[in-house]
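Notes from the pairing session

We agreed to fold both candidates in a single pass and log them together. This is the raw record for the first candidate, unedited. Please don't reformat it; downstream parsing expects exactly this layout.

Candidate A
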Amino acid sequence: MTRIRMMLPDDIPFAIKLTNTEEWGFTRQDFLRLRRLDPRGCFVAVSKKRKIGLITTTTYDQFAWIGNVIVEESARNRGVGMQLLNRAISHVERKGIKRIGLYSYPETRSLYKTLGFAETTQFVRYTGTPRKRRHGEANPLHFRHLNNVARFDKDRFGADRKKLLRMLIQDFPTLSFVSEKGDKILGYIMAKGAQSGYEIGPWVCDRNTTESAETLLKTELTQMEGRRVEITVPKTDAVVARLLKASAFLPTGEVVEMFRGSLPRRCSRSILAVAGLEKG
């Protein structure tokens, strides 16, 4: 019999080991951050006292996000993934949230569709190693920017991510940048990681400020010269694809965004890169 229980700090080494089998690159800090975002929203599957799977959730004010749905290879095709998903959905709905999003790889779409998830937008995962370049000109994003950036982000993402943005500024202060004109926010970019590799996102900028978007990306990449960098962007965004290819990034895979419940009100065209497959 498989039991689903809340993830504890002592489970993090298992979570890292299991996600490493898919080369997802999670660190202890990543899982601690997810637990800080929703302390009771991460779960582990246990069978005969052995941990065999996990799932995480991040709850915003308007919708929630499911991530890290993974089961040990030897325990697959036994319904464990479905158990994990049902527990995650139940947790979110008990908090009064009816809209739930996730990113799916092609091979798992049918599973999510049985639970009422519908496909919305295609995304492409790019990987690259930035070359040495002239330093960008975007300004560092400090805590004094947080309120304005969080309002700007909520209008475009469709939910309040202020708690997440605060954590990213705190944990990665040298990887957070903002473009502004007077008191007006034109866009911002953030990233996480270390010398072993980085992931860029969120990257949010309005379509009428393409120059700001390019400056933000170039500034971010100067912090990552010679290191492996990953980023997930909308498949149909030709401008973002051009900017990434100009920096020698190559597409390495695709995922599709899926939602259960009605779609949130948001400005998808302003989302140039997601915060992470596990967070939306």
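Candidate B (folded immediately after A)
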Amino acid sequence: MQLETVTLLNCRSALKRKSSLILKQDGCCKTKGHVYTVFMKVVVLMPAYRAGKRVVETFRKIPRELVEEVIIVDDKSPDNNETFELAKTLPARVYQNERNLGYGGNMKGMLRKALETDGDIFFELHADGQYNGGDLSKVLAALKPTDGMLLGSRLLEGGTAREAGMSLIKYVVNIILTWIANVSLGTRLTEFQTGFRVYTRPFLERVNFEANSNDHLFSFETILQAIYHGFTITEIAVVCEYPPGVTQMGLRKGIKYTAEMLWTLARYHLARAGRKDPVF
């Protein structure tokens, strides 16, 4: 029986796109007397802002044997180039924006760079060390062929939001906003506000992420884009830490985000009803 190595998430895609790259994720499918060994080529995306030495610590936790490439982009951190210079010591592709673009603006540029690679899976891992790159093995085990995204939830059973230091008010607000979104969308996600996010190539090639916000709303918009275009979303429980110095959303930005989130939900339903919207 002939054995071939291919590089996508399922047999149908595998038959269209073959590669001789090293096996990264076990799995196989059979068709017409052939066995196709299927794996996912992973690219890690590390957006960085005032991360300092945490960019190095976060990088070291990435299981490199599962990763083809790491891309780090410093969003013009106001730290005398400390984050950027430390990132350049790592075996990764490192860039710095000419000006601060905001979280969403930085992610758009990173996703453009990601699509220039031949990666299949793109793991967004913030350089501040809140999430553990070692959870990548759990990601690869959980991803399904129909997924557009995978989210690491701090609120799923096994997550450690409160134990890790999330304030009670943020914990409650997170639960309320998630409940509102689930009721509106008919979904059952346990968290929409997580920073642990994984994108698949079919999803990124389908949606117009360039139309999304340049701010934190970007992450919520991508989830709605996945749902709108019929992709599934998988969740896994993750541990989140809140080390000193990590940038967090303040009260004013939190109120602004909540208002924008509610308006985005309204826009989603208007798009479903036929109104043209560049995000959807």
